[in-house]
Amino acid sequence: ACWAKNFDYGAANHRQIGNGPMLVLSDKSLIAPPKLTAWIETVAAEIGVPLQSDMFSNGGTDGGAVHLTGTGVPTVVMGPATRHGHCAASIADCRDILQMEQLLSALIQRLTRETVVQLTDFR
User: Fold this and answer.
1) Distance between CA 70 and CA 63 in Å, rounded?
2) Element housing 77 (H / E)
3) Which residues pair with 79 in a beta bridge?
4) Each residue of 5-24: pLDDT tens digit?
């Protein structure tokens, strides 16, 4: 056994197993750039993948280190909602994982030089 939040409680936590991939807007180490999150939300809507947006109040992710690389890298954290995420026996919905794969594939296919220029224009 290990400590973990139960992701099925109340409206305060929007991460629900089976409701699509998560888009983490912020955690203790990173605030996702609005241009990047808007682009991801647009692509997800275009391909019909439901997306859950939320903020982590505890802990950070590797995205915190990634976004500080060089002159800065637009970074967002995405993944399936899980229960007991830091345990050897995490629980996830396979549909969320397949939708995550669809979304990542669509993002990669749409990632052009022009998109990169727009996402890295920090003005």
Assistant:
1) 14
2) strand 77-79
3) 22
4) 444 434 455 678 899 999 98
Residue 24's DSSP bridge partners are 54, 77
Give CA–CA dist 41/94, Å, rounded. Answer: 21
SS3 content of the chain, % helix, strand, coil (to 5): 35, 15, 50
pLDDT digit string, tens, across residues 81-113: 888 777 888 888 999 999 999 999 999 999 999
The CATH number of domain 22-115, selected from 3.40.630.10, 3.30.70.1620, 2.40.30.170, 3.60.40.10? 3.40.630.10
Residue 54 near residue 25 (C-beta atoms within 8 A): yes
